[in-house]
Amino acid sequence: MTFELAMLAGGCALGLFHIVLASHSASLQHSYRWTASARDAPQSPLTGVAGRLSRASANFGETFPLFIAAVVLAHLANAHDGRTIWGSALYLGARLVYLPLYAAGICLVRSLVWNIAVAGIALLIWAAALP
Predict the structure, then answer these.
(1) pTM of the predicted protein model
(2) Contact indicator for 34, 27 with CB cutoff of 8 Å
């Protein structure tokens, strides 16, 4: 398995971690009975850490498909160089840092870290387009 595919596998694990954290924090706020229900009754919006974890999970869901596509494109283009290694490492590393920053409510640094993850995706696309 290439380094880039290993980073992709790590991203899958991080995605599951996002879902579990967001789900349990929502259950703690709204109750596990609500979680187990059909959720037909309207519920107040999540607040505090639960709200931030939910939004962080949604944000991960917006960028991860692009990361998957970029890794697969680079792999299919047989591009494996510093750009793909750095790009995949930057994406996963930044997303690992992003989650606790968002949960803690740290804003400006969190935005910088998000941009680092996006730069990682851009490096992968560059490598795929110009191997």
Answers:
(1) 0.94
(2) yes
